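step: validate -> pass
step: tokenize input -> pass
step: predict -> running
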Amino acid sequence: MRPLLCVLVATAACASGASDQPIDAATSPIDGRTVDAADEDAATPDGPGPGPDAAVADARVVDAAAIDAAVIDATVIDAPPPIDAAPPIDGPPPVITSLLLSEVVLTPTGGEFVEIVNPTAAAVNLSNFYVSDASQYFRLPAGVAAVAADATDFVARFPAGASIPPHGVVTVALDTAANFTLAYPGVAPTYSVASATMTVVTTGTATLTNAGEPIVLFFWDGASDKVTDVDIMIAGAPTAANLLANKSAVAIDGPDADSATGAYATDANTLPTQSAPGAAKSTKRIALESTLVETQAGTGNGVAGHDETSEQLGSTWDASPYTAPTPGQVPAALVP
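step: predict -> pass
step: emit ->
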């Protein structure tokens, strides 16, 4: 971004100094010469010598064009980086636009899906985002085998070029797109794991356990030592075999060029369980994340250092009695 700022400032300075006579400065004769207001004000107290070069002292250059709020605030500082830009190797997790898990169906098999909402006003590139129910998803940088996924666990990546629109949702079906539409007549999933519109990096047949699973949305650039948690929730009450693993202090050397390891920060691991929604029912997010319901101190493993394992799901997700699934529908409460 620095070269862009330099060009903007240089361009503003050139434009303001292009005219021999400043258009906004009062003129007056001093010792037979005409100077602009900035020159007059900057003259030294010991004599009538000329003040600083007008390109420096001219009020239009110093006070307006060079620090124009529209340039600094909108173009340089607030412009988000590309979502798939590679972060510094072994550096902190990249800052990523905050997507959220918004709805999960655990059963029946043909109707299983995970839905994601984009509550922001900008489209998000999903190319380096993953959805998983594997408890050790965070070991992916060490290789697929390190994830130790069982026969029904999955880690699935969105296809290259995939995106989610502002204030929109994407629906990821676990079964085929055809079976999804049988379960929800007239509705097609955005992506389907079984139909291979998602890139599944694990082996086995992806399905969600009826009793409960951890559902994870995470980001990985394919090179860094660590993944970045985007959102995590516990759907239902997982058995001991399906509990979310603790990644605190786990150190991994990813596929980057160096041999240094990156260690995960300490997770709170306080995500509560809930009763599982029954057949043809879903659990739905009902509130956005905030500092009131999640630790966002900048020291976690999530976006901007949030701790996604600390969210108070009882406040942000619904509870029994659950209602019918609503695939493809944008929850009004999640789009501010």
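step: describe -> The chain has a mean pLDDT of 80.
step: cleanup -> pass
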